[in-house]
Write a structure and sequence with these properties.
Layout: H1 9-20, H2 26-33, E1 38-40, E2 45-47, H3 50-54, E3 59-61, H4 67-78, E4 84-87, H5 91-100, E5 105-107, E6 112-115, H6 137-148
Helix pairs in contact: 4-5
Length: 149
C-alpha cells in the first residue's frame, strides 16, 4: 500500500521532506495530495482531510445510501489508508462493500462495516458503554465499534 495515501500531519511532513531531498518530484507530491481535502463523487463529497483537521477519519452514515453508493464511498476512503467505519449499514450494503474492499467486516449487531488497518488505540482513557435493555443493544454496540475504530 502507498504509505502516502493516509494523510495526517506526520505523513504530509514526510512527503514534503521527500520533495526537499529530491527523492520525490513536486508533480508526484501534488498528485498524492490531489484529493485533499474533498473528492466529489457526484452524489457525495468524500472528506479525505478530516483526519488531518480533527484527528479522526471520516465516518460514513450508511442509512439512506444505496449499496452501490456506500460501497463507492467506502472504497474511495479505503484507498487513502487508515481505519474506516460505516454506521447504520445493512447486510446488502456490506455485500457491495465486500466486493470492492478486502478486509472489510460486518458487525451485524452494531449495523456497522469496519475496516481496521491501524491497531493503535487513540484517546485519553477508557469509556464504559452501558445499555438499559435489549432494545438499546444495537446503539450500544455501535458506540463500542465507533470507539474502537
Amino acid at each position: 500500500m502507498d504509505r502516502w495515501r493516509f494523510m495526517n500531519s506526520d505523513s504530509i511532513r514526510k512527503l514534503f521532506d521527500e520533495v526537499r531531498r529530491g527523492k520525490l518530484s513536486p508533480d508526484v507530491a501534488v498528485q498524492r495530495l490531489r484529493h485533499l481535502p474533498f473528492e466529489d463523487l457526484g452524489f457525495a463529497k468524500v472528506d479525505h482531510h478530516r483526519a488531518l483537521r480533527v484527528g479522526m477519519p471520516e465516518v460514513i452514515f450508511g442509512e439512506g445510501k444505496t449499496p452501490a453508493q456506500l460501497a463507492t464511498i467506502f472504497a474511495k476512503l479505503a484507498k487513502h489508508g487508515g481505519n474506516l467505519l460505516a454506521t447504520r449499514a445493512t447486510e446488502k450494503q456490506f455485500a457491495a462493500v465486500k466486493k470492492k474492499v478486502r478486509g472489510a467486516e460486518y458487525r451485524a449487531l452494531a449495523r456497522a462495516i469496519v475496516l481496521e488497518r491501524d491497531p493503535k488505540k487513540y484517546g485519553k482513557g477508557t469509556i464504559t458503554v452501558v445499555s438499559a435493555g435489549t432494545s438499546d443493544i444495537p446503539v450500544a454496540e455501535e458506540a463500542v465499534v465507533h470507539g474502537g475504530v
